[in-house]
């Protein structure tokens, strides 16, 4: 295993900085420290933990701009969205702490006292696409429940995660919140270590490996995995509004969002009008790197992800889809705004998670047909329907954890169906996952 991990700016290939990689021995040391620190952390009152975590998040306020720039530089997020994510982390941390405490206080019903006790050491393993949000959503409730946390951030975004943890630690007891840098090998060593729970957000393939490795001693799991979200546009839909959403949701974060719209099915009676509107909106999206603040689509996170998106575009075009906007062979590091019609089952663009700025669509003629096609996926994270009263009838038949009618999917708790995982980000159900529910009769 290499001893250091470089962070590379996908816009210009520059090495921005590096961190020390955590090997198996260092993981054992971190776990030992985490176990020790957890004992006194769990003895503090829940209100004391809330107070300390809120103090810790206050420390982030003066470094919001630095966090935002690091997000842009490490994974290519355009400057506006990176600023929004950094601000969101600063504001949501203190709120999440209070919200978790509300869900985790003991309760009494009849002669049952229900306690939410700490589990011990929780590993939070996160992806690169929302490097602050995906870590915070899980580490805050885990801490408030009285656990100690080891964050294993993505190897694509080590610097922003490092700054987050160092800054929070200015107000937290030593050993309660630690970080283990490295790629999947570090993650695997952490999963196999003597910890109590793994809160994972990332791809389905990694989720499968983690589940297998956690099986030996039945570690608790949260699995927030990938998606292949459909959007259904009914004939009754407000076409300009639906087209605006289709483009925004397909291009958000350069398409690298778990609930971005991956495939769109439009009623054939309005399809010409809808496609025309989508192209007119999509061609105004500006592409560029972080020094330019007037950008809508940044570079993709790395060459591997870029290659995958290009492969999906080319596979669709070779199998008969039509390119309405974009480039058949986009050059690194960007994928320009791309609009493709006539996608079909059997194309990677339809069957798999593409994770790139591509609007991919086809037409349908009957409601039965579109429901079958929207549900014909191993994933079930989000789904969206645009229409009038008939939209609810369709939404009721879609297989997804989060469904939006005339708006995006997602809320609290954040939840996936089918192989998009199990467990939650947020909400009382989400916060309580980090605790051992214990019933005492007295
Ligand atoms: P990934 O699965 O490649 O990596 C996620 C994390 O797992 C990284 O920190 C990585 O180093 C670590 N990892 C890799 N192999 C491991 C192993 N064997 N054991 C333990 N840890 C290991 O995912 P990614 O490319 O970083 O993120 C993109 C994926 O995340 C997409 O599929 C996206 O849909 C999904 N995602 C889902 C949600 C959600 O809420 N459902 C949110 C964000 C992203």
UniProtKB/TrEMBL annotation:
Residues 3-438 form the Aldehyde dehydrogenase domain. The active site is at residue 224. It comes from the Bacteria. Coiled coil: none annotated. Keywords: Oxidoreductase. Pfam families: Aldedh. Belongs to the aldehyde dehydrogenase family. This is Aldehyde dehydrogenase. It comes from Microbulbifer echini.
